[in-house]
Structure formats: structure tokens, C-alpha cells
Amino acid sequence: MSAQSFASRRTVLRGAAVVPVAGLGLAACAAPGGSPEPTPTGSVDLGAESEVAKGGARLYRDHNVVVSRGADGGLKAYSTICTHAGCAINKLQGTTLTCPCHGSEFDAASGKVLAAPATEPLNELSVKVADGRIVAGPKS
Fold first, then answer.
1. Mind listing the pLDDT tens digit for each residue in 53-75?
2. Among candidate residues 51, 53, 33, 41, the one with its CA nearest the CA of residue 100
3. 25: buried, middle or exposed (CB in 10 Å: 19+, 13-18, 0-12)?
4. Cross-strand pairs, 91
């Protein structure tokens, strides 16, 4: 067997070994367990208004929502589905949300990206207080 034939065979074998690994890398970018709803499809009662302090935020994992309260007392709500790969964000430290899949970080008060790989801000939701309860839903 010539050196050129051997090199070609080696190249083919290496390529065959890399394809499954590359496929795993692509699969890792998919949201675990399928694609969660990016925003609530209807209004959801999140809890008592008193649960979110001024200047703070609270993560509602069961609904994929984060609510923050500004210094003026106003509320903001965002979907906690990462705009990079669709993973559900499950970590809030202060007002910084961190995606478990690739480490993107977002500001819970503005929805803005703080750290890549995400480049798009979180989807803003409507939020109001009704009878002392925080209610969030799709943006009208």
C-alpha cells in the first residue's frame, strides 16, 4: 500500500470518528428535555407582590419567568428561556440570571445580555399586580 493511500485511509477514518462527536456538540445546544414555552401562553399568578423587594428580583422556575422591582417600585417581567439555545434559566444571583447550558448571563431588571454566547435580550412579558398578587403573561 502506498503512503498516499495510507494517508487517505487515515483521513477518512479520522473524519468518521469526528462526525459523531460533532453531532453530540450540536445536540448539546438543544434545550434539555425539548423546547419549553418561551413565554407564558396566558396570564399566570406568580405569588404575593411582597415576594419581590425593591432593587431585587425573583425567579419563578415553574413558569419560566423572572420578575424584578426597580427602586421606584415598578415591576418588570421577562421569560427565562435563554435566547441562545432555548434552555430554561435556573439560576438567579442578585439580579443576574445564568443559563446552565452555555453560561449566558442576563440582567433580570432589563433583560439585557451581560455575557455571551447569547446576543439577544430576554423576551419581556406583561406584568401587573391584581389583589396583591403578581400576574405575568404574554406581552400585548
1. 999 999 999 999 999 999 999 99
2. 33
3. exposed
4. 98
Reply yes or no: is the peptide bond before residue 117 cis, omega within 30 of 0: yes
**pLDDT digits over 26-59, tens only?**
344 444 444 455 567 889 999 999 999 999 999 9
The burial class, CB within 10 Å (0-12 / 13-18 / 19+), for 122 is buried
Quote the CA–CA distance of 63 and 60 in Å, as a whole number.
6
Q: Is residue 86 within 8 Å of 36, Cβ to Cβ? A: yes
User: Which residue do the cell numbers 399586580 mark?
Assistant: 129
